[in-house]
Write a structure and sequence with these properties.
Strand content: 35-45%
Radius of gyration: 41 Å
Helix content: 10-25%
CATH architecture of the largest domain: Beta Barrel
Order of helices and strands: EEEEEHHEEEEHEEEEEEEEEEEEH
Shape: elongated
Number of helices: 4
């Protein structure tokens, strides 16, 4: 028992418990999320090739149409009359050709008996050639008028979704007019045009590699961050540089069987920019910064003492950050408890709670 007035010796400090993660190399892919706009895979404007009054609209606005499906009917009466006139002109030219052929046969018979001159024979041959040319011209005119009559029915050149009609019954359709009668867009596949700084183009090319233009799948995201259930890929043939901004314009092709993506929509796309086969990642809360902005972490050495390491970080992935320099595989990084200890302090390292939960998951 100590004498009265003597001080008691100070109790030794108990080691502080800290939560740590042990670094293990893992393969990660760095993604970029870029804004973009949806564009139709193909767009066809329905424009008249002949003039006339629109008699009928033959489609339901906003519906799917097949290639060759009639969309508008222009009054064909005047065009049908022109077809009849061309047919009559052709028959007249054919009759003239028959007459000139008969004349050539008669002159040739008379020429054998020296009762017709060579000049008469030459004139008959020339008249027959001219009549044959008139027949050819008449056939071409009839084909042209027949085509014009067919153009009175405006058909969809491609399969797709037809927008609202831009002209109604009774409107005057004029070839070369300023506006189409309707627009058909193929949207079972669509393009998404993205913009990215030009410096990222080399990284995309390295990611594709020499084996071909394949940078992996692309995820199309809604404004809320949800992923659309569509398959998409980056088209390297669709890359161009905007001369005004210097940005790279990337074109993504996406299957769109459910028509979830509509032309003009603003979306976001997540695409791979870089693959790291052996990256070291630490939770974001393990990284601290000093007054100069230098990033550092605290690690637990083999003897159980704390040491400080300056690091250089890269991209963030799901609440973790890639460590570019400053750490080695196998080291234990403090995630929780580093605010209350100094370098050189003795600590008890416990697995971080996320690891403990992951380890316990299979036993549930």
């Amino acid at each position: 028992m100590a004498a009265c007035g003597e001080s008691q010796p100070a109790a030794p400090h108990e080691p502080v418990e800290v939560s740590v993660v042990q670094l293990r190399p893992e393969a990660v892919t760095i993604h970029d999320v870029l804004p973009g706009r949806v564009a139709a895979y193909r767009v066809a404007e329905i424009r008249p090739q002949v003039g006339g009054i629109v008699q009928h609209r033959l489609f339901r606005e906003g519906s799917e149409v097949e290639a060759g499906q009639p969309l508008f009917q222009i009054d064909p009466a005047a065009l049908a009359a022109e077809v009849d006139m061309a047919a009559a002109s052709l028959r007249r030219a054919e009759a003239a050709l028959n007459r000139t052929e008969a004349q050539v046969r008669r002159v040739e018979a008379l020429l054998k008996t020296n009762t017709a001159t060579q000049l008469a024979h030459d004139d008959a041959i020339a008249a027959r050639a001219q009549a044959a040319a008139d027949v050819a011209h008449g056939r071409a005119a009839l084909e042209r008028r027949t085509l014009d009559l067919g153009f009175a029915t405006l058909r969809a050149p491609i399969a797709g979704r037809v927008d609202h009609a831009l002209a109604s019954e009774g409107a005057l359709a004029t070839p070369g007019g300023p506006a189409p009668l309707a627009i058909v867009q193929q949207i079972d596949r669509v393009y998404v045009d993205l913009r990215q700084p030009a410096r990222s183009l080399d990284a995309l090319r390295r990611l594709a590699g020499p084996g071909g233009p394949d940078a992996g799948p692309v995820d199309i995201l809604s404004a809320e961050g949800n992923t659309y259930p569509v398959a998409a890929k980056l088209l390297f043939s669709g890359i161009s540089v905007d001369p005004g901004t210097g940005e790279v314009v990337l074109r993504v092709e996406a299957d769109n069987p459910q028509r979830l993506l509509l032309p003009g929509m603003f979306v976001r796309a997540r695409l791979a920019r870089e693959k790291k086969p052996s990256a070291l990642l630490v939770p974001l809360q393990a990284v601290q910064r000093d007054g100069n902005g230098t990033e550092h972490v605290s690690i637990v050495e083999d003897a159980g003492k704390v040491a400080r390491r300056e690091i250089v970080t890269g991209e963030q992935i799901d609440g973790r950050v890639v460590v570019e320099r400053g750490l080695r595989p196998g080291e234990r990084v403090i995630v929780e408890g580093q605010d209350h200890i100094q370098p050189g302090a003795q600590v008890v390292a416990l697995p971080w709670r996320v690891e403990r939960l992951a380890d316990a998951e299979p036993h549930r």
